[in-house]
Amino acid sequence: MAASDSTRRITVPAIVRRKGGVPIVCLTAYTAPVAKVLDQHVDLLLVGDSLGMVIYGMDGTLGVTLDMMIAHGAAVARTARRACVVIDLPFGSYEASPEAAFATAARVLAETGCAAVKLEGGTGMAETVRFLTERGVPVMGHVGLQPQSVRTLGGFRVHGRSAAEAARVRADATARGIGAALKWHQRAWCLDRGLAEVRWTFDPLVRRNVVFNLVRLGAQVDRYLVDAYGPMSDDINRGLPTDRVVARWDLTSRRVEAAASGRTASPDVAALHRAGAATALDVGADGGPVVTPTDAPRQLLHVPPDIEAVRAADATLATRWSEAIRATLGASLDAGARVTGATRDGWLVLAAGDRVEELAR
To answer: How many domains is the chain built from?
Structure first.
C-alpha cells in the first residue's frame, strides 16, 4: 500500500488531479480508532453506509439513517489529519429531488467537516450531481453494484460482467457530468478571486481526456512532460512511461467562454487534409500506432480509442503507443508547435506558428 507522502490535508481537487496518474489509496473507516490507524496510509477515507451491516448487524444498508452517518462521519473527520474524508448519503435522504439532496449534503458537510459526499446512482442522478457541484458540494459517484438498490437489482451480485451490463455501467460513469461541473465551478471560484489561469496535467493517449480537456473545457496544451510521475507500480501501468501534457486553461479567453456556454468548435480533419495537413500518427489496422515522419506545418495525430484497455491487455502494444506519442506530440511541442484543436473522435491538430480556426466547423 502506498499513499501520497504529503502530511497536509488531501483536498478534493488534489484527488481529481490524480485521475490517470498515481493511483489513489482508499479504505473505509466507521470509527475514530480505525481512522487514526489508517489516516497516514491512505489518500481517501470513506465513511460508508455499509456501517449498517459492519457495526450494527443489519442485513443491508437501507436501515441506515442520516443521523447515524453524521455521527460516524464526524468521528472519522475529527480524527483524520491528512486523508480526504467522504461520507455516504443514506437511502431516502437524497433521491426525492436535487433540492432534497442539497439539504442533506449541506447538513453532512456542516455537521461533520468532511470534504465530500457520496451517492449511488447512474444517469438518473446526473442532474442531482450537477445541482450539488454547482453549489459547492463535491460528490463522489457510485455505479455498478449499488447496495441501496439491492431489492430492484436482484440482490448483492457483481455488475458489468456481460457486455450489456458493462455498457450500462460505463454509461452511468460517464453521464454524471461530475468532472465538467467541478471544473466550471472551479472557473467561477477562480474568477471571483481574480485568478485568470489554471493548469493541470493529463494523459494525451486517453481519448476521453483529450475530448474533455481540449474540446469540452476549451483548454490548451502548454507543454509535454516526459515521465511526469516516474515509475508506477500498479498492475496496468507497471513498466510504462508516465508522459503527460500540461493543460493551460485561460479562464477569460473567447475559447473558454464559448465552451462554458456549450459552444465548442471541432476542426474539420478532411478540410485540413485538403489544405495540406499531414498525418503524423494514426491507428493501424492492428490497433497499433503508425508513425509517418513529416515536416508539414500542420500535422494530425490520432490517439487510440481505448488506451486503458490496451494497457490492461497488451503491455508491448501499450509501450509502442507511449513511444509513438512521445516521438510525435512530444517532439513537435518541444520544437515549438502548438496544439490548435481536437476532435471528439481522437484527432489532435498541431500547427507550427499558424492558426486553423478558419477550418473549424
So the answer is: 2
Judge if 164 and 200 occupy the same domain.
no
Which of 232, 227, 176 lies closest to 330 in space, CA to CA? 227
CA distance linking residue 47 with residue 74, whole number of Å: 9
Helix 178-192 × helix 126-134 angle, to 10°: 10
216 domain-assigned: yes
- Longest CA pairwise span in the chain (Å): 69
pLDDT in tens, 231-263: 877 666 778 899 999 999 999 999 999 988 878
Residue 352: pLDDT band with limits 50, 70, 90: confident
> Are the C-beta atoms of 86 and 47 separated by less than 8 Å?
yes
pTM here is: 0.58
In terms of residues, how long is the chain?
361
* Domain residue limits at 327: 196-359
Same domain, 234 and 166: no
C-alpha 212/C-alpha 214 separation (Å) is 6
104-108, 177-181, 211-215, 349-353 — most confident range: 104-108
